[in-house]
Amino acid sequence: MTDPAPPAPPPSGHAVSRWLHPLPAGLYCAAGDFYIDPRLPVSRAVITHGHADHARAGHGAVLATAETIAIMKVRYGPGSAGSFEALACGERKRIGGVEVRLEPAGHILGSAQVVMEHRGMRAVVTGDYKRAADPTCAPFAPVACDVLVTEATFGLPVFRHEPAAKEAARLAASIRDQPERTHLLGVYSLGKCQRMIALLRAQGYDAPIHLHGALVALTELYQTLGIDLGDVRPVSGGGAAGKRGLREPLAGALVMCPPSALADRWSQRFADPVTVFASGWMRVRGRIRQRGVELPLVVSDHADWPELIATIEESEAEEVWVTHGREDALVRQLTLMGRTGRALALVGFEDEAE
Amino acid sequence: MKAFAALLDDLVTTQSRNRKVALLARYMRTSSDPDRGWALAALTDGLPLSVPLRRILPELLGPSVDGELYRLSRDYVGDTAETVALLWPETPASAIAGDRAPAGSPRLSEVVDAFLAAPTTAYAALIGGFLDRLDTSGRFALLKLIGGAPRVGVSARLAKTAVAEAFGHDVGEVEELWHALDAPYGDFFAWLEGKAPRPNPGLRPVFRPMMLAHPIEADDWTGLSPGDLVAEWKWDGIRVQVAARGGQMRLFSRTGDDISAAFPEIASAFLGRECVADGELLVVRDGVVAPFNDLQQRLNRKVVSARMLRDYPAHVRLYDLLSVGQEDLRVLPFTARRERLEAWHRTGAPSLTDVSPIVPFADFPDLEAIWASTRDTGIEGLMLKHKDSPYLPGRPKGHWWKWKRAPLTLDCVLMYAQRGSGKRSSFYSDYTFGVWRTVDGQGGTGELVPVGKAYSGFTDQELKRLDHFVRSNTTERFGPVRAVAPGLVLEIAFDAVQRSTRHKSGIAMRFPRIARIRWDKPAAEADTLEQVIKLLQPPEPA
Fold this sequence. Notes:
Structural class of chain B: alpha+beta
Mean pLDDT of chain B: 89
Strand content of chain A: 15-25%
Strand order of the largest sheet of chain A: 7-8-9-10-11-18-19
Mean pLDDT of chain A: 91
Oligomer: heterodimer
Distance between the termini of chain B: 64 Å
Order of helices and strands of chain A: EEEEEHEEEEEEHEHEHEEEHEHEHE
Structural class of chain A: alpha/beta
Largest sheet of chain B: 7 strands, mixed
Distance between the termini of chain A: 29 Å
């Protein structure tokens, strides 16, 4: 574990860029000698949330919310970092010359923004975030700052997510109207899965929800951490049929699985399945056709275009750095808003559920 | 408009052809006239309108959406109508409730009538007014309706099939009538519903469903004997049907599209005749068939200049005769039709035509030798036709076979990638590749020069991996195009190499497609321009 830390040229003229800038391993806070969501193993990392492209195994010391640490331990094992330190949202901690605190990002359970103060300047790294309500995590807390480092997954004006409750109601109605078919909902195993379950429960859908094996561990963790998800059970739910499970067609039921399993042989056992996919990409017809989705739901755990702009405005930041996504368009928008925008071109981050 | 918008939405989420036909059929049964007729026109030949959306839409969006953001959005979405539908500002509920309230979602025929009645100068205001009255789906449907060539996952033929099936008719019946009908097809729907007699084509030339061939496969040979078959060259142009009647003439493509306007010289050659003939449309100079690229210059043109007519002279090489005068020859066996074709052509042939020669052969080994040795320009391979076959619509089994010559292959290096559209929007799916050209005075592999572009021959899984490769190896960006570092070898299969001014290398490939992705092969070991030039058709002196 050697930190590749050649002295990088200051990436912009802003004072903050002297102590916060991208390096090959990821975004580096020089004043506190730590990285945020690094893509390579480093000695000290602050992790915004548990998704695999942000939280990786093999760091020395990890600082994150207690929920994010719990998620990392389930995914990578309890020894996946040299040490874990939990920091509650709102609590302050001094690291080197920087005062660090975490604030909720509203993306998934445990997701946090990283707020850093140094020499009278404040920088906020949002990590992934959304502004829409989510029953499975704390809502995004806007923080005023000098430099805002934001994601831009849905950084094009064509992206406007639908109200999630409305989309969940469409799914519940489709299940009700087609009792002879299995509804097969493709979701990311962490976050989207549990949010969709909670949204359906809020619609009064109280039937058992069947989970692909890849979704079980994290869903159980959510329940352990106090999120009520009702009756959820593994698809091949044991019983006398043993480990291989009953090959039930589950007509009329809802089955959830990772997106990759939608087109897999695994899905052929179900009754004439309705392929459902919940993602911000479902706004665009080309993406619906690419995935062969029969019931597209425009639900995302990332900010849509209006949310990105609202967040930038509320931050009052002089300068906005864009980490990943459709950065060209967001940087253009920043120019139109009379602010300085800059694409950090950080590599290693993935688009939503792809 | 709502029913049509819902239909387009449903088509996006429907993969199966049969379910698409069922959706279209339901729309045709449940919608009223003339809405359904205009919708059918939009899905087939287009409405009798020419609305320059590409010019009007950016102007309309201008005040509310930044041009650069529009361009980036259009680039991502891959479809102009959809981009505008998504970006158009929603009319606030307060405005709808107010005095200047737009009158809710318009009826489809209201939209069409408005455009038909309006001068072109009023189009922009009309579009803006209708967009304000529609939701996202409705806006998309509106722009697809008036924009022509809607690309909504439905071919013209599928739409015709659906309208035929909706009312228990065969698609062949619809195709034979089609070019005698005018949108919005009131008399046609009345006939389909059994309320009126079959519309009379009068003296208008109409399309006859064409007979198509199957690719020949190993199993097919066992049931065949050389004496049953006639061989012809498979010419490398486009299959056409010439229909002349009552002083009018139409040139139809294989799918029944009327392409007469692009080939006026063929129209005059057949004027005053009464016949339906099947043949290959080619560019022929001094009796020599030009490369397909030359024909391509003539396709999809609304206006043909005198210069185009001179530089790219069109010609029809005839394969078959479907009718002469009032006599329908389609029931006759191939050999009888062939005799009629030759006799008819001998006695007063239309200019700019000839009869495709029969290729004599002794037995199958002899035929295979002919097939394997043919690399002439303009020939794609052989056609085998059963001597007894009548002229049947569609692709009947056991009558006609095509035997395309084996493709050539070269190992090329990926140079540029462009985003696809439609189903592939946002993926880098169109690949320009090149070969090495030595640079004087320098050793090594030299420089890469582009030789072609391919966007087929790979699976969805491979597309994802290719897309990832492009994103991780980008060296430069030019709008939707990315230049990539030379690091990936694509084995390209193609039918021929021809001279071209379009590429820097001076050559172009015919029908290139990706045969294999050579993740394993170092780019430096890809082929060179010298190797490509050896394959040129026609060959060039060394």
